[in-house]
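Checklist before submission:
- one chain only
- standard amino acids only
- sequence pasted in full

Submission:
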Amino acid sequence: MKPETVRIGPHGYRIRYEDLSERDVFGEFRPAEQAILIDRTLTGSMLADTLAHEILHAIWWHAGLGDKAVEENAVAALATGWCGVLQANPALQPFLAKALTLVS
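Returned file contents:
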């Protein structure tokens, strides 16, 4: 089941799955609409990578990191790298999820 929303800090974003083929993109972050658009034809690793990519754009935007020249390359590298880490280490995701719910 594809996620329909994501929280980034205190902000909630709706994830919309649409036909983005005419825009020649796989995904798009739209802060003014509080939305992340993902091409509806994506599945598997391309879907995961694209969703991670757009979430990282949102994190970048909220952090006020600026520098658009650096943003796309940084986000692309981090999203693909993080998806690869999770794919190669299946025990990591449930461990992190559990660790993040524990109160220290």
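Reviewer check: The radius of gyration is 14 Å.
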